[in-house]
Model the fold of this input.
Amino acid sequence: MPYEIKMPQLGMNQDSATIVTWLKNEGDGVNKGDPVFEVETDKATMEVEAQASGYLSAIQVELGVEVPVGNLIATIVENKKDVLKSIQEPYSDDKNQSVADDGSKIEHETITEKSNEVTPEIGDLSFKIDTNSKDLSKKTGFSPNEKVLASPKAKVIAAERGLDMRRLIARGLKEPIHSADIMGLQSGEQSQLMAVVQDRLLLELIQTSEDIDKGNIFASFLLGSWHFLFPDKFLHVQINKLDGSVSLFKEDILPEEGAEEVIVSIINLCDTRLFSYSSGQNGNVLSVSHSNDTFILNFSFNVADIKLQEAAFLLNELAERVEDPIRQLI
Done:
């Protein structure tokens, strides 16, 4: 008779855990006491051992899914010929389904929220922003609010070194991330460049529209500059606002498979008395401020992502587009 592997309770107040690594594959032989998988709770990551000998069968849970204590995860069968790929629908935390008294699934009505997309236009210039990062992450594979699958120790080490897990994933690091993965990384040096640009032409365009957001304009100009200079690399532009909100600037171009991806955050300081901002860690941040008829572009970047020469070309191209917005259309 198959032995059922269920999510164990690993702490007094723990009611669920997330599987971060399978140490055995379906069909592999296991002995009682062998570690089978690793789970992560809010406090630790630990191995779970087999309580019976046989062959691992019918894995029910994908990596990264939070599973309640007591839910079936897999089975151990005595004979290899009895190994099954699946014995039931894999566990899902989808809250859009319920089960009726007769066991049938009830599909809940899906409510679609009004689109958050804003498309302000300035003459022939058009800038597009979509604050729905969940939908955007399906297209780009990146979301500023998406949970990263990593062990607590890896998260602590990354925080100590000033490393952004999402940037590491965009650069090719695979989930789940372990402490050894972080220990072997080169964090790179942080550098900074600044440009001062005349504001007249851009302000004339901005004044023709009441709804335009300067942060969106600079995000569009930054993307245009990047694609012009580095067509083989893909740039994600993240807009960070002073109220703490984060959104991903939407563009129609999607990264090609295997393309190098870089993340740059933009902070708009134009309506404040602040002059510039530097990340102080290993991020790539463009801050934009306004003073005495000029825009001040301060670019803090990590040389592991963007080399000094690339950053200089990028900031110079961006400055030229800000000073003469018609370049954005060329």
User: Anything to note?
Assistant: Residues 234 and 261 are 5 Å apart (CA to CA). The chain has two domains: 3-82, 121-329. The helical segments are 133-140, 152-160, 165-170, 179-183, 200-206, 214-229, 308-323. Residues 3-82 form a domain with the OB fold (Dihydrolipoamide Acetyltransferase, E2P) fold (CATH 2.40.50.100).
